Amino acid sequence: MPERRTALLTGWRPLLAAGVVYALLVAGIVMVRVWPAAQGGDYAALKEETTSDFRDFWYTARHFRDTGALTDAYGVHNYLPFFTLFMLPWSFLPLPAAAALFALLSVGLFAAAVALVEQLLNNGVRRGPRPATYLALALLAPYVHSCAVLGNVMLLVLFLVLAAWYLVEHGHDAAAGVALGLATLVKLLPAVLIVFLLLKRRWTAAGVALAVVGVAGFGLPAASVGPAEAWREHRAFCERAVGGHSALTTLTAEKPPKAMYSNTALPMVLRRLFSPLSGGKTDTRPVYVTVAELPPTIRVGLWGALTAALLATSTLAAVRYSRPWPPRTERGVWSVRSQFGAWCVLALLTSPLVWTHYYVLAYWPLALAADAAARRAAPSRGARLAVAAWVVGIAALAWPAARAAGAPLWATGAVWLWCVARGGGGKDPGEERLITAPLSTSQ
């Protein structure tokens, strides 16, 4: 056993060493980014000087600790009231130290997510990373870096989502529900995955997730500020985040919020393409990608049709291989995993707000595509096309106009299409064997 453990560590040592160096580098970067805020001063001026999501989280949590009141004055307006309380422990540390520790934790959780994926797709962690492992990491690297240096919570959310699926595969549905419920409370995007579990008839996992969202999501704020104030804060959240940043507002308002090219949500991309709306970060440097001017009703109808098609197609794919559970064939196992990948991507395709760092949520479907594309025996042509489309999306990050036109979003759509095809039982010509492990037979 000691010899085997040593061999495992030896195989992964170069990647682990690179990860440690990168984590320390990111910790240094985020400390520099938040340092001006740690010296005090006007918050509005600080916000213009540097960009740091963690700085805003820390300020919001400290405000609650100092006043006992929830607030969105520091830019934390797209998060549930639960989130301020969830981030409260970090406010007891000085801002630079808290930001550095959070960065280290985020990179560490991403490393844990990679290990979970390897356990599932490779029947355990082998002596070293596979070519598919390096490929998947390279495909996600720009988005991981964006998330880490901003101090955003999406790497934590990614870990919780993958932990939930790992637990589902191993038959621990209640624990999976806890992980997915917490991910949904931290960021609403994973809520669509609860729908996926319902479609797969994983009643325990979905029920526990919904219970966590309901009980912890309202119970913790109610215990902290009182039920009446907690109710008012949730109503304000709905008006502010759900109403103010909804797809309808984006598609119809004269000047919709969050119009800069870093926001590549489907409604915003359609709005830029079919109305003269600048995707520039400032009025002095506009970025126009208008291909035609359509009235608001047509824009809404186009978005509605695309969204309905995405939901319907993903749902049709998800209902396959729900009984018996787990699937009894190797092909069925691969299909179920691809279905989950399609719904991870669906969360991005249907969200009314998608910043660049949100794309880390695509790690599972990208890992599946990399696994299929990098196989020596009968590699998947569809997977290679999906990977190629994703690479084009990465290259487009350097061109604001391409981002404004939705290049990363369309690349994500290509990955979704491949996952849906495989989730529906599709198979590339000549592909004879899929390298997978059977799902757990326990409930």
Task: Describe what you observe in this structure.
The structure is a single chain. By secondary structure, the chain is an all-alpha fold. The chain contains 19 helices and no strands. The longest helix has 37 residues. It is globular. It starts with a helix and ends in a 20-residue tail after the last helix. 46% of the residues are buried. About 2% of the residues have low confidence.
List the helices and strands and how they pair.
Layout: H1 2-38, H2 43-49, H3 53-67, H4 81-86, H5 95-121, H6 131-150, H7 154-169, H8 173-186, H9 191-199, H10 203-225, H11 227-243, H12 247-252, H13 266-273, H14 296-318, H15 330-349, H16 363-373, H17 381-395, H18 400-404, H19 407-423
Helix pairs in contact: 1-5, 1-6, 5-6, 5-7, 6-16, 7-8, 8-10, 9-10, 9-15, 10-11, 13-14, 14-15, 15-16, 15-19, 16-17, 17-19
Search tags:
67% helix, 443 residues, 19 helices, mainly alpha, single chain
In short:
The chain is mainly α and 443 residues long.
- Terminal CA distance reads 31 Å
- Helix share of residues? 55-70%
- Major sheet summary line: none
How many helices in DSSP terms? 19
Shape field? globular
Order of helices and strands: HHHHHHHHHHHHHHHHHHH
Radius of gyration from the CA trace?
22 Å
**Overall strand count:** 0
Mean pLDDT: 88
Strand composition percent = under 5%
